[in-house]
Amino acid sequence: MEDKKIVDLFFERSEQGIAELSEKYGPLLNRIAENILGSRQDAEECVNDTYLAVWNTVPPKRPDPLVSYVCRIVRNLALKKYHANTAKKRNSTYDVALEEIADCFPAAASVEEALEAKETAALINAFLETLDEAGRVLFVRRWWYSESIEALAALFQTSRHNVSVRLSRIRKALKKYLEKEGVSL
To answer: Across the chain, what does the average pLDDT equal?
Structure first.
């Protein structure tokens, strides 16, 4: 079913909208949440919470594209649950992915720094446009969807080493790009 028709079902307050959303994007949402949380049960809970959030926000919102909207919701819910689950311990699966790219971002502590973070986000989007499609896919799937090196190697039908080297080069290029644009790291 087309995304517009799914959104229309939510506007009609039809529970069929949730069923259609689940059928179309459920596996993707589960994968995103499970990549972050490392737990199938917690991932399912986040996905269900995502459906509830969509139910509560559509209407009045009319998300376009729908896939980005629901992926952002599930990711934010999974991150919130991840932080709650790991408040006193380190979970290497997600922390490793974030630590890989952490030196490319300044820490935001004030209003001025928060504005700089928005500008940095715009610069990152501009940087992503400089990459080839495979580079953009690697970047987003590793550092937005938290996919493992192994999963990326399987996706690109290459070795873990090849993926690691490519990600390392992308990180270095991002850091160089941000520094060239005046972002202090």
So the answer is: 87
What angle do the packed helices 160-180 and 111-130 form, to 10 degrees?
120
Q: Give residue for tokens 């986040």.
A: 46
Q: What is the CATH number of domain 94-180?
A: 1.10.10.10
CATH of domain 3-85: 1.10.1740
Which pTM does this prediction carry? 0.69
* Contact indicator for 29, 36 with CB cutoff of 8 Å: no
What are the domain boundaries of the chain? 3-85, 94-180
User: Is residue 107 scored above 60 in pLDDT?
Assistant: no
DSSP string, 87-153: TTS--HHHHHHHHHHGGGSPPP-SHHHHHHHHHHHHHHHHHHHHS-HHHHHHHHHHHTS---HHHHH
Cα-based distances in Å from 80 to 46, 66, 76, 161: 10, 21, 6, 31
Opening angle at CA 73, ends 32 and 85, nearest 5: 65
